[in-house]
Design brief:
The structure is a homotetramer. Chain A is about 60% helix and about 5% strand. The relative contact order of chain A is 0.16. By secondary structure, chain A is mainly α. In chain A, strand 2 (about 10) and strand 3 (about 15-20) form a beta hairpin. Chain A is built from eleven helices and five strands, in the order ββββαααααααααααβ. At the C-D interface, strand 1, strand 2, helix 1, helix 2 and helix 3 of C face strand 1, strand 2, helix 1, helix 2 and helix 3 of D. Strand 1 of chain B pairs parallel with strand 5 (about 245) of chain C, so a sheet runs across the interface.
Chain lengths: ~250, ~250, ~250, ~250
């Protein structure tokens, strides 16, 4: 069997290195968010990037027990009290294309728009063309729209922090241009957290997969707390879903 | 259906509060580790607690692709390229009583020892009694022993930071006392990361379940990076485990 | 690296054997339930055992979308449309000590009672002593009680089939004795499906872990169908859980 | 909260119906494979369909501990001994586009070919055109090729049983035509189990998603047995993957 190659951790009897840094030095002097950044990017963040990355993880940490991820984790805990890992993992499994997954799609859209912009007319024209095509084919623009918020309060904070950190670039430009193009097309749907995350991760040089992976790393903070609360406050099997059966009436075998 | 109660997140159209704090203020001024602490403890950490909690999460972040959690995540990614969530969740499912789960057990042991110490003779005598009982019944002392390290370099750093932060208390005292009692009983097995985590989480006032949940929150940093690396560098289905069949020979139906 | 030992599957370029049987012969002549039995027991079932094992799997297959396992699978599918595996796995993660897990506990109780019976007085006296101890310590008797059914219609059918198959033994005797002892103690809670499964799996010579594993193998039939229905009939993100927040009011950072 | 609609299970205090059939009648007279068919198709299978469906589930049941699904389940069990569900779920999470997922893709290809065949020239010409396009764009044909077998022994048995059952139709025709077209194009890669499953599930009228879901239902038989064997025979943490680190050398913070 081939050894598994890895560039992430090296260790011997007395040392552990993460991406070449001695873990005890990281423990003494770095933040957890910086180390997550390091593991993905192979370098430590600048101070501005670190603040921004912290903000982005906090923005993803929790959005309430009703979000599919947290609700799934609590439901799993309701039937399975013997494994905390199982409940947290179940919560992560609810994260996909629809919930927490629009970030990866939005990063693809940013890439399409930024390449189209190079072809001519700038980012605003490219965004307008994208919105036009999406409307014509009846497709939703990923990174926009929310079930609860008309304006998501996290978005403006993230974009301002990105500017302060000198990180804001094509990603934010493209999402802001999409927002303007949607408004011009009389479609008032706000930038959502997936869209904001995608813009910033793009500008930080992360690949599209990070749209999902970094959201997961942030959301696990909330999932662990929601599962802990479910165990502490609630009885097993407390959750009763109202079901309406509309299938076959009783029939003969 | 009864509404689900929660004390963690509240929101309306324009605000999101985590444990009563406006999420935009947390994003601007707090670290991700502080917010994880807040979600679990209902208060923000002091500066010393925050440094310590960061160190503890970094210590848990990754220990190489061969640890069961990371190997499981990579194996799942090897067969299933279409879902990043699935691979990360698979990695979490390898965390249990044996891997990453000794923290919860150790916190129970700390509780036993600290209560026994109150009965008389102090923490060292109580730890010696515990080790004696464990040896007599052939049981392992949780939080001690490691496959790779003879001395885990993370332990001393964590204990020193806990002292600096004014956090060190019964948890660390009990684990240090156990270490001395094991040495006195001629059993040279070092404190491992689970034991150190347990000591500190105990001193920070976390319940035993946090021994597993906080380890998971830290390890997800490594899992997301290991899965990203597997996708970027390796081909699907690359992993071939050597199997030795020792069951029934061919037989008639 | 040591090769992994396994007694389950052997294969070469042109043959696959399961527990020594040529898979093509099993495919031509055996039922799926028989092969599941074979993989766990290393022998094919008798005709009576096969009928009984089929019945037991059918009894576990589905109990509606509101059971924690199916509800968890549907919730995961609600947020994550891109991975069918993720939704099915999430459903399995809701199976534990509380939901679908009482079988393993009940098998342990059967073992305790059957050993106590050998000590004297027979199975009925042993069951009565067990119920007395459980009542005295305020513990529930596993395998008894249900949220919906006052009499679970599956139980009598399973026990009758076990008798017909010549399988009924200590397992069913112990559970029936527990039922009588509970009634004598004025506790009218019916044998549930976990209890019936445990009795029969005990009499078929399965270990306690099978109480959970065989339930999972059966329930996956329902989980796959529930997930397919969720994808076909329902929109993503359709599930909205009513939340009641009772935590900290807004507070200053 | 809106009630969840479902057509699968209905129950009251004394009855449980699956798709309109009394579960006690199904338990007494049907096979588990028939009930899985019923849950997905809303009707019981004919005798021929039942035999075929059993064969298809048996063919999926297990292919050895080295397949990603089983290896992932065993690795998870290696670190996490406290949750059987977690290990089985981890195994399912390794099933995706690459492992066990080609069935869904192949069903899409069958649909494309069968529609192209209607346009003119019959199924063989359509399959040849498909292979030509795939070769031109460097894409693999899903449902063909295997790591171990040059001829997968399960395929011929399944196709023969499908013919005997009167089920063989466009699905098998399309896959056989693809096989011939690949051979004509000098590409000797055999039909694999995913391809055979897809052909038969297509001819049984299942949607593409069943390519994955029915494979999962079958594979869970093997996963539960592999996890049981891991618990019974092996020590925790036994699995050590050889890692070769090729990343950053030690560097200064």
């Amino acid at each position: 069997m081939e050894p598994w190659r890895t560039a992430i951790v090296n260790k011997d009897e007395t040392h552990i290195w993460l991406r070449g840094y001695d873990i005890t030095q990281l423990m003494s002097r770095a933040s957890f968010a910086s180390v997550l950044f390091l593991l993905h990017k192979n370098r430590l963040p600048t101070d501005g990037e670190e603040r921004l990355f912290n903000a982005l993880l906090i923005a993803s940490a929790d959005h309430g027990s009703g979000a599919p991820s947290c609700a799934t984790a609590r439901l799993a805990a309701s039937g399975n009290r013997e494994s905390l890992s199982a409940a947290v993992a179940a919560g992560i499994l609810a994260i996909g294309d629809v919930h927490g997954g629009a970030g990866a799609l939005t990063m693809d859209v940013i890439r399409v728009i930024s390449e189209d912009a190079k072809a001519g007319g700038g980012i605003n024209a490219a965004a307008a063309r994208y919105v036009e095509r999406a409307k014509a084919s009846g497709q939703r623009v990923p990174g926009f729209g929310h079930r609860v918020h008309t304006t998501d309060p996290r978005v403006a904070v993230l974009f301002a922090m990105a500017k302060d950190a000198g990180v804001a670039g094509t990603g934010i430009d493209a999402v802001v241009a999409l927002d303007a193009a949607l408004k011009a097309a009389k479609t008032e749907i706000p930038i959502n957290i997936d869209g904001a995350l995608a813009a910033i991760l793009f500008d930080l040089g992360f690949p599209a997969s990070a749209g999902k992976l970094i959201f997961i790393a942030g959301r696990v903070a909330g999932l662990t707390a929601e599962v802990a609360e479910e165990h502490e406050r609630e009885k097993p099997m407390r959750i009763r879903i109202p079901i309406e059966y509309d299938g076959e009436p009783p029939r003969e075998f």
